[in-house]
């Protein structure tokens, strides 16, 4: 049938074709048309037809000496799908085959007859199965790229017989087994990448004898044992990536002398120990150093300051120390690294006051992580010199002093330098001992998206400008904040708000309803908020967490709460709420919504409907310590009567008609399902309570 199909294609429009357009070897044409029929449902290859010589077809190149024979097929990113046509194995003059960045699936086709093939690139598809043993027949291969697929099994030993390979790229697959030592026999290798697979065992020692290797990437596997010493003697090496394995041992003392051409070294996420050799400063071409998440100890070498090209230095999550001026010298010398954009010494053993020379770091520094050390004293105002910062983390220390003493300097610098300093996107100062008021000048940080000042000793009112001006996530938990929530909070861009465990008073502002298309989680727990639950609170149809427990809120639950179709955690416990629990609210635990936990304990509710009774029985709803007749664990009748006799605020009636936002139904679950409760720590705001 295929021959008939091809014949018809060739016959169509034959009156326009001269004999010169017919190929010398029709086998190649047949192979291409079979590929088109099998892998091109969208018509990208419509130009492959008999009106044009096949050597002029898209992605096709032909030999100059063997007329009509195809030497290159380059169809990267053409939306090809399906199993690769086996007919490609007939293109015996092929030197380049590039089908990368498509949606090709199935197993790799047989290419054992493609003895002239030099470049094979099938990367970024969805290919499965193992690498065929017959690939060893392609002995002229120089580039083999099968990365970003779903290939499994072991690397065939025959790959080690491809002695002309300069690039072997197999990253981001599901390959298993040990790395075959025979691969070290491919002495022509320049790039070798097995990143993100499931390889086991140790790194073969022979890799240290590859004379031309420039990039060696074995990261994100399950490799163990020590790093072969001879790897650190590869003078040709520019990139060494061994991160996220289980490698052990220490670094050689002369690492910076022997890796004389190294530009990037990534050893993070292993079990390496010992000190960082000062000789690292002699590898003057280094732009990236990642030694994070190991067990390195001792001082941070001041010789890092000799790396004038250094762009990223990540030493976080180790046991590195700084306790005196000498051991803090690395901060002084890093001021010489004018290209530095990222510095992390997060989660180490740095003690004392942050040196004032922190302000001498690169003016282009974008990310600075000093959190979870043992830092104390005031934050140096010199941080205000770091004009391009977009992330600053100082959380988990013992810093003291007022925020204004240094953040004020930062914002002042913005005003003086024409906003060249307004790039700060993440400001994390949580878990310190900072005091004073929150400065209103935070509103000058136009790029601020995340502000975490939780668990300090901040006091005063939440500024009506500044805090909520631009940020989408704000956490002020565990301070001494007083006063009311800003009345115009609804004009903010908030997605996450956490102000638990403070001394806030007054009502929940009705403007909160304006956040109906952005607010996802709100934590008002354990304050002194009062007044009625605003009708507008029920308009937050995207919110998954609303927690206003342990306040002094009163009145019935508004009927608008039936619109909270996305809410999973709703906590109104330990307030002064009363009346009937709306059955429409309880129905959000079924097909109408996603409710998983409804906590109303410690109030003065007097009745529940049928849907609510079912939630109580299933443990989804907690109404202990209320005034509901017939239920266990309720308040004493005298206590309920005393409350009922008290004068009440005038609140909207629970039965007031409500029109939900049009998108409110989007959070519903399928009929017959009930949303399973998640761990509290899986929510952004609840997680801030336990950092």
TrEMBL record:
This protein's GO CC annotations: membrane
PROSITE patterns linked: LRR
InterPro entries with a match to the protein in the record: Leu-rich_rpt (IPR001611), Leu-rich_rpt_typical-subtyp (IPR003591), LRR-RLK (IPR052592), LRR_dom_sf (IPR032675), LRR_N_plant-typ (IPR013210)
Signal peptide annotation: 1-19
Domain Leucine-rich repeat-containing N-terminal plant-type intervals: 26-63
Localisation per UniProt entry: Membrane
Pfam families hit by this protein: LRR_1, LRR_8, LRRNT_2
UniProt keyword annotations, A-Z: Leucine-rich repeat, Membrane, Repeat, Signal, Transmembrane, Transmembrane helix
Lipid bilayer topology: Single-pass membrane protein
Entry annotated with the keyword Signal: yes
Primary location group: membrane
PANTHER family, A to Z: MDIS1-INTERACTING RECEPTOR LIKE KINASE 2-LIKE (PTHR48054:SF14), RECEPTOR KINASE-LIKE PROTEIN XA21 (PTHR48054)
Listed name of the protein: Leucine-rich repeat-containing N-terminal plant-type domain-containing protein
